[in-house]
Structure formats: structure tokens, C-alpha cells
Design brief:
Elements lengths: L1 H4 L1 H6 L31 H8 L4 E2 L3 E4 L4 H12 L12 E4 L9 H10 L12 E4 L10 E4 L4 H16 L6 E5 L3 H4 L1 H9 L2 E5 L6 H9 L5 E4 L7 H10 L3 E4 L4 H10 L15 E6 L4 H6 L11 E4 L7 H9 L3 E2 L10 E5 L7 H11 L2 E2 L6
Parallel strand pairs: 2-13, 3-4, 4-5, 6-7, 6-8, 8-9, 10-11, 10-13, 12-14
Antiparallel strand pairs: 1-2
Helix pairs in contact: 3-5, 4-5, 6-9
């Protein structure tokens, strides 16, 4: 469910470009609050201090890592929307209940006080999009999305997205329902592009998903994950509906996230194969982090979600990828391209030593024999 949730982030994301040879997918337009007569003071500084953002930063990395998911999510929200001025506030927020907690966690309430969403024409005046059983914040106009199962929820979120953006998506991403570690990178791409995530079982396409594809049978479908996550039988089911279908995959979650980061075809995919990009790194076994971090892929340095599978050790495949896109310069470092990496989670999730290695791999390096 968490990957589908951030389809809503596509509505709230900012504009930008994706550096690639083919024409990139258009980014959704940022929806900010309607102008107010006077700037309203909000406890932004106090909230940021209490929520611990940023918890640790290096030259090329910034960590957002609270003691729990709610704290980390609040930190990400304030990083993307500092909210010191009206123009820096989001038009609306998205809330999802991590585990039927009932009341709003304190970090969420603090962040909402600082963010102060007002709604806009782009959000149909909604100040909050509430997914599933999450509680509605007091005093906010909310649009709730419910469904009986994850596949149906994804279709319901698609309907909300199509209504707000007044049109169908350019692509569908078909993600594995039962293996969220393979689905996680789709959250960042949905926030970046406005594409729709739908769900599939390992061997069978849910009826809700099949129905949504049938309504737009010419829209391309990109299957995210290997055949062990979504089988070739499912791919054939999609093809029978009529949708053009391709697979983007790696054999494990780390490789799978890199495959989507590298991919580009027909306006789909990040095409991050060179220096000069933002990146987001989170743990593969904490899929809620994908939803939490998604707004970072739709603003600022705009980058794909990459996964690490260990707290202490950077996976070999991720190390090699970061080395491959490591920025360099020959004569003038001030005219070079730079990489920046957001690290999601506390030190129990990703140790500071791993963060330091990521920083080194993202560091601008002198290449060649040119003079300074």
C-alpha cells in the first residue's frame, strides 16, 4: 500500500526536468497554498529542532532519520516544505496510518501545525488526503480514499489522481503487491512523474487492476521487478488486455532500484546514468521509507530511490553504481556537476559509516591532468 499512497504526492510535487536524451515525462505542477493577506507565523523552527532535521549532514549527504516512521515523515515534510512563508507551504498533505494507531502521533501534529496546509484549486480545496484508516486531522478539509484491498486502493488513488489532474497518466507502473521491497522504487517515480502505480499478484493480475488497465488499453505498462515477483504469466495477461508492456527489473531489491534509476524509454524512467543528480537511499526491508521519502524525489534535487540491504555495509551493486555516476572536473570545480544524496532512517537503519562511504562516492573528484 505504501507505494501507491504517494501517487497523491504527484499532485503536490514540483516542476522540473529530467536530463535524458529522450523527451522526459512531464513533471506535475506544484500546487501551493492560495496567497494569504498576511504571512502567518508558524512554529517551524521549533518543530524542525524537536523533530531532529537534519540529524546528520556531510558535504554531499543529508540524513533525515527520526526514532520512528512518524518522526522521519515529519522531518521529510519540513525539508521539502520549510513553511516559513506562505509560498513554502504545501497546498495539502497526505496521511497514511502505519498500523491503525488511532490518534495522530505527536510528530505528525507538530508538522501539521508548521505546514498549515490551506488547500487550493489544484487539490479541489482539500487540505489533506487521508488514505485508508488514517485519522483526519481536526479542522482540515479532507478527502479520504478507502478500499477493501491494496489493488483496489491503488485504483481508487488513480481515480483521485485523474480527477485532480484532469486526465489519464502517460504510463502505468505494475508493482508486486506481496513483495514491497521490489515495489518501493515506484513511489519515488510516481511522485516525480505523476504516473500511476497499480498492483499485481505474483502469478495473477487482480480484477481491479485488470479493470483499470482495460479502461486505458493503449497506455504503456512497465512491470517493476523480476519474474519471481511478477511472473511472465502476468505480463501475458497485461498484453492480452492490449497495453504495451515492458519489464524493468533487477534480481534483488538493490539491483531492482538501480535498474529503475538507470532506465529510460519513451519518456519513462529516470535515466540517471551520469553525474549531476539528486539521489535518495533507504533500507530495502523498510518499505514505509519509500512513501516517507517520495516528496524528496519531486522537489529540490529530484532523484530516484536507491536501496541498501544492510545497516553497516554498502551493497556492492550500489557502490559500483555510485562510482559510475561519481562527478568529476578537469580544471574548474565551480562549473562541475554535483550529486547530493538523502539518507533516510536513523543509524540503526543506515550506519554513519555507510553514510560516510556514500558521501565519498558522491564527492566531486579531479580527473585528468588539467591545471587548477
Amino acid at each position: 500500500m505504501v507505494a501507491a499512497v504517494f501517487l497523491v504526492a504527484a499532485v503536490l510535487g514540483g516542476g522540473g526536468s529530467n536530463k535524458q536524451d529522450e523527451k522526459p515525462a512531464p513533471a506535475p505542477v506544484q500546487a501551493t497554498s492560495e496567497p494569504a493577506p498576511e504571512e502567518k507565523q508558524t512554529p517551524v523552527a521549533e518543530a524542525a529542532e524537536e523533530l531532529g532535521y537534519p540529524s546528520f549532514a556531510t558535504n554531499n549527504t543529508t540524513r533525515v532519520g527520526g526514532s520512528d516512521a512518524a518522526t522521519t515523515a515529519a522531518g521529510v515534510a519540513l525539508a521539502v516544505f520549510p513553511s516559513a512563508k506562505v509560498a513554502q507551504r504545501p497546498a495539502a498533505v497526505t496521511l497514511v496510518d502505519e498500523g491503525d494507531c488511532g490518534d495522530l502521533p505527536d510528530p505528525t501534529s507538530q508538522a501539521l501545525d508548521a505546514l498549515d496546509p490551506q488547500g487550493s484549486t489544484a487539490t479541489d480545496k482539500a487540505q489533506a488526503f487521508v488514505i485508508g484508516s488514517a485519522p483526519v486531522p481536526h479542522g482540515l478539509r479532507a478527502d479520504r480514499v478507502r478500499a477493501a484491498n491494496p489493488a483496489a486502493l491503488a485504483v481508487a488513488i488513480e481515480a483521485l489522481r485523474d480527477k485532480l489532474l484532469e486526465g489519464a497518466p502517460p504510463h502505468f507502473v505494475l508493482a508486486p503487491e506481496s513483495k514491497p521491497e521490489f515495489a518501493a522504487p515506484a513511489a519515488a517515480w510516481a511522485a516525480r512523474s505523476g504516473d500511476v502505480i497499480l498492483y499485481s499478484g505474483t502469478d495473477k493480475l487482480p480484477k481491479e487492476t485488470a479493470g483499470a488497465l482495460g479502461e486505458d488499453p493503449t497506455t504503456p505498462v512497465y512491470v517493476l521487478g523480476p519474474s519471481s515477483a511478477i511472473s511472465s504469466n502476468v505480463v501475458r495477461e497485461v498484453a492480452k488486455i492490449g497495453n504495451p508492456v515492458r519489464r524493468v527489473s533487477g534480481e534483488d531489491p538493490v539491483a531492482n532500484s538501480i535498474a529503475l534509476a538507470r532506465y529510460a524509454s519513451g519518456g519513462f524512467g529516470w535515466n540517471v546514468n551520469d553525474p549531476g543528480h539528486g539521489l535518495v537511499v533507504a533500507r530495502s526491508d523498510e518499505p514505509i521509507a519509500a512513501a516517507i521519502a517520495a516528496p524528496l524525489s519531486a522537489s529540490g534535487t529530484w532523484g530516484p530511490l536507491l536501496l541498501t540491504d544492510d545497516a553497516d555495509t554498502l551493497p556492492k551493486a550500489l557502490r559500483e553504481y555510485l562510482l559510475d555516476i561519481k562527478p568529476g572536473y578537469t580544471t574548474d570545480p565551480t562549473r562541475a556537476f554535483y550529486n547530493h544524496v538523502w539518507v533516510i532512517g536513523d543509524q540503526e537503519a543506515i550506519d554513519v559509516n555507510q553514510q560516510a562511504e556514500i558521501d565519498q562516492l558522491a564527492e566531486l573528484a579531479k580527473i585528468g591532468g588539467g591545471e587548477e
